[in-house]
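Private note to self, pasted from the team thread so I don't lose it. Backbone tokens:
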């Protein structure tokens, strides 16, 4: 490999999040010409009853991811590695945060040495990775400003905001997916900021080559109104979906994703169908069989500063 190695601190987990996310899409392409190590998200908070939904489930899936340690998940990309560090999510105190950063850094440095990754570039999406990165010798640091993380409801807003400000000051490049956010923060990033809009795997989302209709969709009649993606309560307006199901009794509402909030009220409706999480490569075969696509997002700052890849995937599939 002639190009400099690259370590990515992702905002998602390769093993259970949708792989359409920009950090995964960018890293799999970078791995064609350089060695890439993706660190699954180290998170921004510890799930807690009363503040987080499906607490036990979130902890269990992170434990399953951690058990995978270091893998090469794509045979066609032998230089693409995914690591799940053993994370101690002690974000509630300064001492706990320092220990967690030291412990995670130790693991990442050991794996990077094992892979022969010297003086890598670092691509960082989640702000809590900054204390980890500080202790890792690196060449350039790119901050992937994919969301306004300090607006995340369950996080320590002041702590995350302080990390964001430090990243604005110290990153060699700040890459934005949302032009509004870029312009609002240009006074802190100056000529180090760039807009990198999302792309789509157009071959995968070509409606003429999506394969057969999935079995769990065949018995659902048309018209089908649907959505595929993250079903987190701070993103998706479930009250709106309930309203749609009531107002359009002859239409079938189809959700493809992993519900992270109670959907008991919706599941009781005869025209509502939750098909669960699907592998990224299966998603187009579901999406192509919808008649109308939805983006039932909440109106909040998290959404305002985002740039959903989903919109372009819908367009690639030819969906109204």
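Design output:
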């Amino acid at each position: 490999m002639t190009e400099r190695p690259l370590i990515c601190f992702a905002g998602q987990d390769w093993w259970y999040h949708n792989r359409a996310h920009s950090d995964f899409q960018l890293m799999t392409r970078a791995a064609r010409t350089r060695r890439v190590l993706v660190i699954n998200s180290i998170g921004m908070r510890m799930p807690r009853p009363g503040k987080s939904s499906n607490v036990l489930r979130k902890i269990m899936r992170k434990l399953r991811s951690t058990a995978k340690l270091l893998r090469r998940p794509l045979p066609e990309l032998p230089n693409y590695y995914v690591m799940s560090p053993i994370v101690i999510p002690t974000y509630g105190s300064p001492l706990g945060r320092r220990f967690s950063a030291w412990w995670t850094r130790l693991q990442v440095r050991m794996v990077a040495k094992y892979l022969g990754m010297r003086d890598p570039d670092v691509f960082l999406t989640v702000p809590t990775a900054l204390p980890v990165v500080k202790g890792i010798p690196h060449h350039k640091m790119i901050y992937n400003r994919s969301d306004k993380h300090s607006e995340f409801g369950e996080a320590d807003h002041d702590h995350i905001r302080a990390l964001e400000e430090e990243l604005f000051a110290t990153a060699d490049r700040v890459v934005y997916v949302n032009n509004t956010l870029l312009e609002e923060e240009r006074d802190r990033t100056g000529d180090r900021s760039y807009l990198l809009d999302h792309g789509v795997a157009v071959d995968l989302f070509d409606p003429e080559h999506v394969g057969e209709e999935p079995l769990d969709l065949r018995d659902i009649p048309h018209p089908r109104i649907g959505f595929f993606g993250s079903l987190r309560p701070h993103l998706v307006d479930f009250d709106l979906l309930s309203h749609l199901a009531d107002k359009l009794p002859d239409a079938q509402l189809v959700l493809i994703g992993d519900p992270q909030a109670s959907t008991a009220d919706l599941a009781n409706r005869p025209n509502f169908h939750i098909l669960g999480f699907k592998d990224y490569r299966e998603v187009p075969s579901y999406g192509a069989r919808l008649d109308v696509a939805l983006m039932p997002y909440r109106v909040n700052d998290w959404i305002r500063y985002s740039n959903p890849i989903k919109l372009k995937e819908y367009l690639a599939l030819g969906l109204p």
